[in-house]
Design brief:
With 511 residues, the protein is mostly helical. It has four domains: 188 residues, MFS general substrate transporter like domains (Growth Hormone, Chain: A, Up-down Bundle), CATH 1.20.1250; 52 residues; 212 residues, MFS general substrate transporter like domains (Growth Hormone, Chain: A, Up-down Bundle); 36 residues. Helices cover 86% and strands 0% of the residues. Helix 1 runs antiparallel to helix 7. The chain is globular and about 55 Å long. 49% of the residues are buried.
Length: 511
């Protein structure tokens, strides 16, 4: 292996390691929230903000950080992102009240949202062709592995000692890892290439990201603080922010800049419907993880490691299904996504029935088994839906389409995890018993509604796809008949022979 190959492989492992710890942190943190809530005496609103803050900040940072990396260099933004992530982990681990934890989670999300676009960009810069596909596949595998390992590692740490100390260890464990990664990044990552004078600087739509984040925050407030004046005010502010976002995006585009969401994307039915499917599916995943963790940890008093064992099969099923999802979508297209969404809905209903009808370990085993099936259903949706949705991006808008698609997923996770946890905490009037089952049911209802919206969007897109195929087939048939008619006029064999040719041509096209 040459020096160049060794440098590439070292950079690959560094990128995978940095991406892995940020994704691992997100997947294992949900198990730590109940212990953290008890330790810091956090109220329901604080718990919801703690759950939502990471994804919210991640989403706000995602697209601007990717564009900023094009300007100042991915190496610089990579180091800045991982450093912010590590420093905020230290703040979270030493926090003495819920407000500090919320701030720490916001900064962690900001760091992770800055880091991850640089990881993807660096892999695309360093590798070409088939090697690039392998590198990006390794990154996807690292994310899937983090989703499987996260709950198990979190549950193990929380179970080995006092959970009130364990959640702090989960924060603080990031610090030494970051202290190792930062100097390695200085040494291993390529320095940015010199700028070409003729190249225009990429635009950074920071205001658009902040306005859209404001819409999400305004939507969060009613789920956290309930109905009343503050809810009405926040919804009014959110509506104003949404209008401001739409106006700003139009203005930004007219100035020749690259907005978060262009008009051409908004008009693309395939892209819009596919994005709705994605954000609902992502929201269900985040909301269901929160409700399941709270039910088994707070509602039944289960040990954290046992609760982690219930969550892990779903992540494993998703990772397994993603390995053959491309075959699934190649055969069924949008119809396959609808089938998989129906499977997810059936799994949610089954989980609720098992929790309501069974007790103790039997319910836990049943939920874990159904979780594996739900993970398979989810894995058959995530990657195929992204591929089909981004295929509808207009020419020149692929980057904008991918950025807004990911951003919408993060915002959906922030909103749905907070809403689902809030519904559970409000309905959970006792430590155990029927109140916990009722609270679990409330969370399931919310997730079923979201999947219903995803099914509606997926079904409409399936019909759109079928109509497009019908139009295409009709156009081909018409073209074939016109060609055959032309042959009838031009062929020298006479009407009979020409008529035979016309019939054969038309039959072959109709077939």
């Amino acid at each position: 292996m040459g020096h160049g190959d060794h440098a590439k492989r070292s950079a690959l492992w560094l990128c995978l390691g940095a991406g892995f710890i940020t994704l691992l942190d997100q997947s294992m943190f949900v198990l730590a929230v109940p212990a953290m809530s008890d330790s810091l005496h956090a109220d329901s609103g604080s718990v919801q903000w703690i759950l939502a803050s990471y994804s919210l900040a991640f989403g706000v940072a995602l697209v601007p950080a990717g564009r900023l990396g094009d300007i100042v260099g991915r190496r610089t933004l990579f180091i800045a992102g991982i450093a912010v992530f590590g420093a905020s982990s230290l703040v979270g681990g030493l926090a003495t009240d819920p407000s500090l934890v919320i701030i720490a989670r916001l900064l962690q999300g900001l760091g992770a949202g800055t880091l991850n676009p640089q990881v993807l960009g660096l892999l695309q810069d360093i590798y070409q062709g088939h090697d690039r596909a392998k590198a990006l596949g390794a990154y996807a595998a690292a994310g899937g592995s983090a989703a499987v390992c996260g709950p198990l590692i979190g549950g193990l740490v929380l179970s080995l000692g006092d959970p009130g100390i364990g959640w702090r260890i989960l924060f603080l464990a990031n610090v030494p890892l970051v202290l190792i990664l930062v100097p390695l990044a200085f040494r291993l990552l390529p320095r940015p290439a010199g700028k070409h004078p003729g190249n225009a600087k990429p635009s950074i739509d920071i205001l658009g990201a902040l306005l859209l984040g404001g819409v999400v925050v305004a939507s969060l407030i009613p789920t956290i603080y309930g109905a009343g004046t503050i809810a009405v005010t926040s919804l009014a502010v959110g509506a104003g922010a949404l209008l401001a976002f739409a106006g700003w995006e139009i203005l930004y585009h007219r100035r020749g800049r690259t907005p978060l969401l262009s008009a051409s994307l908004a008009k693309s039915k395939g892209y819009a419907l596919g994005t709705v499917v994605a954000l609902c599916q992502f929201g269900v995943g985040a909301g269901m993880a929160a409700v399941t963790a709270f039910y088994f940890l707070s509602g039944t008093g289960m040990a954290p490691l046992a609760a982690a064992a219930i969550l892990a099969p779903q992540a494993a099923g998703m990772l397994l299904a993603s390995s053959f999802s491309w075959r699934f979508v190649a055969r069924y297209g949008r119809a396959g996504i609808v089938y998989a969404l129906l499977g997810s809905l059936a799994c949610l209903i089954a989980k609720d029935l098992f929790v309501q009808g069974l007790d103790g370990g039997t319910a836990a085993l049943a939920v874990a088994a159904v979780g594996l099936l739900q993970g398979v259903s989810t894995g058959l949706v995530v990657a195929p839906n992204q591929t089909l949705t981004l295929a509808h991006a207009p020419v020149g808008a692929a980057g904008v389409a991918a950025g807004f698609y990911q951003l919408s997923q993060r915002f959906a996770a922030a909103l749905c995890s907070a809403a689902a946890a809030g519904m559970f905490l409000q309905a959970h009037g006792a430590a155990t018993g029927q109140a916990s089952k009722d609270a679990f049911h409330q969370g399931i209802v919310l997730c079923c509604i979201l999947l219903g919206v995803a099914l509606l969007a997926g079904g409409l897109d399936w019909l759109r796809e079928a109509r497009d195929l019908t139009k295409t087939s009709a156009a081909v048939v018409t073209s074939g008949r016109e060609a055959a008619t032309t042959a009838l006029v031009l062929t020298p064999e006479g009407p009979t022979a020409a008529g035979t040719q016309r019939s054969e041509a038309t039959d072959s096209v109709d077939a």
